[in-house]
Specification:
about 400 residues; alpha/beta; TIM Barrel; 2 domains; 8-stranded parallel barrel; about 40% helix; globular; binds (3S,4R)-3-hydroxy-2-oxopiperidin-4-yl beta-D-xylopyranoside
């Protein structure tokens, strides 16, 4: 088998590394000799291949002369999807349906990923903006696309912060009225996608360690008390008993030396541990993993956090990964910043995939042509593909991490 290039669909044979002054067949040759090998040998081949490619890239990085869209380990697996499947992992991207309209977008998604998260389409404000108004158009588009391409779907999210919850939900109500309203919402949304949505982010970003009880003040907390999280999980489970149910949060990825991250990850750990001991149907935790290249957790600390969550019997996924590299914060040439980004993607993912119970990696988008980072923090290039859907060094970092022993 010759591995296909995710860029051109052409065979590895036709590719060369675009390192200025260094045109190498190393990757091509390694790619070719992988055919017909045992899985073990192939894995070793992958590692060697990745190492060779990394060495060549390093030469480029030192001289500052490589063209960063270079294919490196491309001959090692046909796609991220293929690489992830060798480990039994899901690999995904957040998607808004507008993203499917652009040329190249649908092809890239279908080839590279086996998991889609509804970026905004299932959020309360999008799907149920007024008491009698539902809009499933965007959500249906994503679910249909996933089904056509044998991808699983994560529904994101059912309960979020007050800023992201429509005003009508926050209207004055008794606890019982609120509970009934929530239940109706969940039955309608989860019921519609029963059997089609594989996993749900049931509650998103509930932790706020500045509060005495460690929970963010929201209308859900106000109306139902601290038990709202457990109640929501029960309601979703009742609406679709086969779906995997996740608690999802940010800046809680790691058992870290940064007090902020450590306090938050400890609070999430305590929260899910308590839910489990109370018999709540929770199956996993999502670590958002929105990282800044100038301040990010140590991979070993992230792995330790994954391990302790998995030891509770939970599945763990990286749920929204992106890595900011804006020149405003990170010094260096573009090539250097992209190399740092590659390394971060690689090191974090390589550490996580080795942990038992780790089941999925989702990126918050896939092309730098569109990322929430630009609208939230200003222009950046936080994802795996450039705006022309060409794999960036970060892509190869992820590929290597997926293929390493
Ligand atoms: C973001 C979307 O990507 C944006 O399009 C939207 O304007 C705001 O929400 N953490 C989450 C996601 O859990 O739902 C957020 O998504 C990004 C941060």
């Amino acid at each position: 088998m010759l591995c296909e290039s995710p860029i051109s669909g052409g065979h590895a044979r036709s590719k060369s590394l675009h390192v200025s002054g260094v045109t190498s067949n190393t990757v091509t040759e390694l790619g070719r000799v992988t055919s017909g090998m045992s899985k073990m040998t192939r894995r070793r081949g992958f590692v060697k291949c990745a190492a060779a490619a990394a060495a060549i890239l390093a030469v480029g990085a030192i001289t500052g002369r490589y063209i960063w869209t270079s294919p490196t380990a491309s001959s090692c697996a046909a796609s991220l999807r293929a690489a992830a499947e060798t480990r039994g992992l899901l690999i995904g991207a957040a998607l808004s349906p507008e993203g499917l309209r652009y040329w190249g977008s649908a092809d890239t998604l279908a080839r590279e990923f086996n998991f889609l998260t509804t970026e905004n389409a299932m959020k309360w404000y999008a799907v149920h903006p007024a008491p009698q108004q539902w809009d499933f158009h965007a959500a249906d588009t994503i679910v249909e696309f996933a089904s056509e391409h044998q991808m699983k779907v994560k529904g994101h999210n059912i309960i979020w912060t007050d800023e992201r919850t429509p005003e009508w939900v926050k209207a004055e109500r008794t606890s019982e009225e609120f509970r009934q309203m929530l239940q109706k919402h969940i039955q309608t949304l989860v019921g519609r996608y029963k059997g089609k949505v594989y996993a749900w982010d049931v509650v998103n970003e509930a932790v706020d360690t500045r509060e005495a009880n460690g929970l963010r003040k929201t209308v859900f907390l106000k109306r139902l008390g601290e038990g709202y999280i457990a109640e929501a999980f029960h309601m979703v489970h009742e609406a679709d008993p086969d779906a995997l149910l996740f608690y999802n949060d940010s800046d809680a990825e790691s058992v870290d030396s940064s007090a902020y991250r450590k306090t938050r990850s400890d609070r999430v750990y305590e929260l899910v541990k308590k839910l489990l001991s109370d018999g709540v149907p929770i199956h996993g935790v999502g670590l958002q993993m929105h990282l800044d290249a100038w301040d990010y957790p140590r991979p070993a600390d992230v792995a330790a956090n994954v391990r302790r969550l998995a030891q509770l019997g939970l599945k763990v996924n990286i749920s929204e990964m992106d890595v900011r590299i804006t020149e405003k914060e990170l010094p260096g040439t573009l090539a250097e910043r992209l190399e740092i980004q590659r390394r971060i993607y690689h090191d974090i993912i390589a550490a996580c995939v080795k942990e038992k119970g780790f089941m999925a990696i989702t990126f918050w988008g896939f092309t730098d042509a569109y990322s929430w980072i630009d609208e939230r923090f200003g222009p950046d290039d936080p994802l795996l593909f450039d705006e022309y859907y060409k794999p960036k060094p970060a892509y190869w970092g992820v590929m290597d991490a997926l293929l390493e022993e």
